[in-house]
Amino acid sequence: MARESTKIVLPFPPHFSWQECLWFLDRGYNDCMHRIQGTNLWKAQVIEGQPLLLKIGEGAEGLTIAIENKKVSQHDLKAAADWVRAWLDMDRDLDPFYRLLNGSAHLSQATQHYHGLRLIGIPDLYEALCWCIIGQQIHLRFAHSVKRQFVQTFGRYLEHEGHAHYLFPEPAVVAQASPEDLYALQFSRQKADYILHISRLFATAALSKGPLDSLPGTAEKMKALLAVRGVGPWTANYVGMKTLRCMDCIPYGDAGLHQALGALPGFTAKPGKEEVDAYFSAFKGWESYLVFYLWRSLCAGPPTP
After folding, report:
1. pLDDT digits over 167-201, tens only?
2. What values do phi and psi take at 249, rounded to 5?
3. Is 110 among the domain residues?
4. pLDDT tens digits, one per residue of 241-295
5. How far is residue 238's CA from residue 243's CA, in Å, rounded to a whole number?
6. 8, 77 in Cβ contact below 8 A?
7. Is residue 76 domain-shared with residue 134, that is, in the same domain?
């Protein structure tokens, strides 16, 4: 990493495109957890216990990362760079995945059209679980609207140049809410119950990411997640992909996955588990990335140059 006094530069790894990652983050859902202007992205994030406002942009040699809300130290910059690298999955070698895509009769164009797209994560387990519960069985645009109300009601924000950059709510804050508080934000009774239950688990340290990360394999992680009330197979696999970085997760029953597969030759409109497994068997160890690229295939937009 090349260091400067006010920013740090993350060199681009092979098969990385900031344009593709940025485009995926800016699909018109008005996500409240980041702000994009041109090729720059601002994101508020708690890193090593500090609320930091990150500005991420593209330089000639890599991603430039600056901290906008406080006097920076080299330690702060390195911690921010480590967080961004993990968020954008920059340390993963995509060569094996691209070889598999190039060998597919249906998906070989993806290595050109979406070249450099990384599986953008949700590193915070509490945020990931809340987002899954919010998004269960509703349209994605409505889910983002509910998420915005939830974040703006319970979260703090960092103000910079007239913009409020929100941090995801802390579990202890949400745990003090009443079901009626969540009903007012368009949560169903069941979702309000799940959110409050999970918030209390995190607030009392009965649930956290560390113990899940320490489990030996994906099957053990899925079993532990499924033991949490409100977490079903779709949520467990989504969290496995985006937070625990298990590369062999498939969110069965996902409407977007069904739509993307249904557009391929030979698939039924709503493929079952056996049909999905048969197709994914050729991508063993890269199932999570294949899901992400199939989701990308649903989005209208120009291919990456």
Report:
1. 999 999 999 999 999 999 999 999 999 999 999 99
2. -100, 140
3. no
4. 999 999 999 999 898 999 999 888 888 777 888 999 999 999 999 999 999 999 9
5. 8
6. yes
7. no
Domain extent for 70: 2-91
Residue 77 tokens, joined? 């910059």
Is residue 159 located within the same domain as residue 280? yes
Q: Are 77 and 113 in contact (CB under 8 A)?
A: no
Beta bridge partners of 50: 47
For 42-54, letters b (16+ CB in 10 Å) and e give bbbbebeeeebbb
Q: Are 234 and 253 in contact (CB under 8 A)?
A: yes
Buried b (16+ CB within 10 A) or exposed e, 209-231: beebeeeeebeebbebbeebebb
- Between β-strands 7-11 and 163-166, what pairing exists: parallel, antiparallel or unpaired? unpaired
Q: How far apart are CA 167 and CA 240, in angstroms?
A: 22
**pTM (2 d.p.):** 0.93
Contact between residue 183 and residue 204 where contact means Cβ atoms under 8 Å apart: no
Same-domain pairing of 156 and 80: no
* Active site residue ranges: 254
Q: What CATH number is associated with residue 79?
A: 3.30.310.20
Which residue, chain included where needed, has tokens 């409407």?
A: 255
Helix, strand, coil percentages for the chain (3-state, nearest 5): 45, 15, 40
28 plus 146 within the same structural domain: no
Of 120, 130, 176, 164, nearest to 150 by C-alpha is 130
